[in-house]
DNA sequence: AACGGTAATATGTAGCTACATATTTTGTCA
DNA sequence: TGACAAAATATGTAGCTACATATTACCGTT
């Protein structure tokens, strides 16, 4: 791109990355000041700043005011995950999407849900259990709790046609998100719903969202065997 | 922060986010041009640009030249994952870290590894199997393949004291990363190594790295039951 | 030597301008 | 009507300046 005479901030970033790759700057080493790099490369400090920000965002370097920039002594593996709406995920794989509501009812939130939201005490919430299908076969079972105080509209929604997943993602943007991944063995009910052998290992994607400390929803998405979650970046 | 008279790009971002939250702009809607928003809020276009970039990065809006900015019609749940070095992960939990090499030998790469790297044919690679311990108990078992063409130094490393995980993360920065998560049932060997019941559900974190299309390493990190992977953002 | 205040310094941010780039829209000609 | 070229337009990027902010370094006092 901008391959002219001017250096783009991506060029600068890649050049510094290159220096880290080749060992010119090793873990813990301090890099020159932005201004010096700018002069050396013949670009503006703002360009170096953008490049450094990006390297910092991707976890390769650490920056501190007055302290300068240094290569992370203990790098982290950092990646961005995109989790689409389940319907879209199925459709993009070329399969036909299906949806089936299993149960919808108010119930007092159990301990796990109260803890996920960081609430003090239990309270009644809407529990929605549903099955996402891919070409007619079970794909993901979701066990969801919705806080009716934050989303009063759910009292008028039956979730028989549109999934809570879809409705919430479209209508309830969040300000805070908590994700966790773990594995569980299929208990009799799960193996029945997902049509798997009892005891099969299943990946669970647990998601909890808030708007400014007000809990929206928490959901366990229990996937079928063989399901893999991939990074896009 | 910059709470003075001047608006920071974070303020602008939050203000626009607020408008999306309250439904002033719904999914698919087009937002005003940056310049108009800048004028309305009394700040520079560059400030709005930064705010919009951030909203775009977090998957809330989509921007296209000439096309303008619009709220994503089908939002994605986007999150950033940080996976630290295993030693550090254990130490940060307050436990004592231990490491044990199980096996280290050259072997022809099996199909799965060849596929993960996107190679045409199999070739000999270094396989390193090792156990990470937390307070003396198994924590993560890693089954790793290293490409000796890309990292010839590994021929002189025995990985009995320092884990391949640590050495690679410190000495082999990558330019491309592939992450995948899934669940497996513990087979007899795994349940023996990890001291779990046979058939236990285990979360697997699979990581593959490259430097400019040259494969570095691919590793299956098989965690013990109860292990959870969390987002930091 | 310990403490505390002040200066020095590197990054962070806001604003401005100018131009680049991608895309849509418009207009013209066959 | 269709195809293609040209104009219009919104975002993207680079450079500059000025100032804010965090943190380290220094120095004087006790």
Automatic annotation (TrEMBL), chains A, B:
Domain HTH gntR-type: 6-74
CDD domains in alphabetical order: WHTH_GntR
Any one Gene Ontology molecular-function term assigned to this protein's record: DNA binding
SUPFAM superfamilies named among the record's database cross-references: Chorismate lyase-like (SSF64288), Winged helix' DNA-binding domain (SSF46785)
Entry keyword set: DNA-binding, Transcription, Transcription regulation
Superkingdom as given in the UniProt entry: Bacteria
Protein name as annotated: GntR family transcriptional regulator
């Amino acid at each position: 791109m901008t391959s002219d005479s001017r250096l783009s901030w991506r060029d600068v970033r890649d050049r510094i990355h290159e220096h880290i790759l080749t060992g010119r700057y090793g873990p813990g080493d301090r890099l020159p000041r932005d201004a010096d790099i700018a002069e050396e490369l013949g670009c503006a400090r703002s360009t170096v700043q953008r490049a450094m920000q990006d390297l910092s965002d991707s976890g390769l370097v650490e920056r501190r005011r007055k302290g300068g920039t240094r290569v992370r002594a203990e790098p982290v593996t950092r990646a961005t995950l995109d989790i689409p709406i389940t319907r879209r995920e199925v459709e993009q794989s070329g399969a036909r999407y299906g949806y089936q509501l299993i149960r919808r009812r108010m119930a007092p939130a159990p301990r796990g849900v109260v803890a996920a939201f960081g609430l003090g005490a239990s309270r009644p919430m809407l529990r929605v259990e549903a099955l996402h299908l891919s070409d007619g076969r079970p794909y993901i079972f979701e066990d969801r709790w919705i806080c009716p105080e934050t989303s009063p509209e759910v009292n008028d929604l039956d979730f028989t046609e549109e999934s809570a997943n879809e409705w919430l993602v479209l209508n309830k943007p969040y300000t805070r998100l908590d994700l966790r991944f773990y594995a569980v063995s299929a208990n009799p009910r799960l193996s029945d719903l997902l049509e798997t052998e009892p005891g099969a290992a299943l990946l669970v994607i647990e998601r909890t969202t808030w708007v400014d400390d007000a809990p929206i929803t928490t959901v366990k998405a229990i996937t079928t065997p063989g399901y893999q979650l991939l990074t896009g970046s």
